[in-house]
């Protein structure tokens, strides 16, 4: 959702054992860039629902959100102000099926391996480094911070 030049985004690190799923995007401002499944929050959409919807659209997986690494406010490479809500999650159903028109690849890697990527390989590397740091150092907060309906 974009309002007054502010873009609201939900993003999810899908974690399985000690690995995380990353996707390679093929979008106008993110050609051949690795990222976590993410996308715009639609008008009147619950943030948690948006995160699950975006994962389903981009990967084919159904996920259960398990925590959050936080909220990130930054100016994107497309010069938009972005407020990104980032979550951790686990697969509870579905099968890997990437959205081929905007996603060109996906892979499971160890979270720490993200530190081996160059900035030019990642979409918004400054934000991804912060997210990875929080996951690696186990600074993930409970999902109930966003919505008590999950209790």
TrEMBL record:
GO terms for molecular function: hydrolase activity. Keywords: Hydrolase. InterPro entries: NUDIX_hydrolase-like_dom_sf, NUDIX_hydrolase_CS, NUDIX_hydrolase_dom. Pfam families: NUDIX. The keyword Hydrolase applies. Residues 5-132 form the Nudix hydrolase domain. Belongs to the Nudix hydrolase family. This is Nudix hydrolase domain-containing protein. It comes from Neobacillus vireti LMG 21834.
